[in-house]
Specification:
With 131 residues, the protein is of the alpha+beta class. It folds into 2 domains: 38 residues; 76 residues, Nuclear Transport Factor 2, Chain: A (Roll). It is 33% helix and 29% strand. The protein has 3 helices and 7 strands. Strands 3, 4, 5, 6 and 7 form a 5-stranded antiparallel sheet that branches. A hairpin with an 8-residue loop joins strand 6 and strand 7. The chain is elongated and about 70 Å long. It starts with a strand and ends with a helix.
Amino acid sequence: MPKEKESMPGSDAEKDTFTTIDDLVHQADQLATGLRELGDYKYPLDIRRGVKQGEGVSDMADESDSRIVKAGAKTYFLDIKKTKEDKPFLVITESRFKGEGKDRERISISVFPENAAEFAEAVSVMALKIE
């Protein structure tokens, strides 16, 4: 959106371009609008990662189907999602800070209903062993 300098008749045919304050104000308004729109999404980080709703997995039913556990530089997200067939499953995502100026690393695992009880029992047993 840089503006072109007005040239006087008889001046050099090549025009220099420059950015004006008005251009920057317009860009800032566009950025603020885009950030507000992202903030309205339930999971704005999924948008950054390129995950589109409806690609095999639907959004969560409501906020009660999600838990967050913060552990220092790591954050764990436990979410109940549904398949296309409307079957629920658990997604456990670890997001960890890799350092200043670097993106966060995200790793996810899925636990399906047929394995949920055995998984929960194993986690409980192992949690008791580290207490």
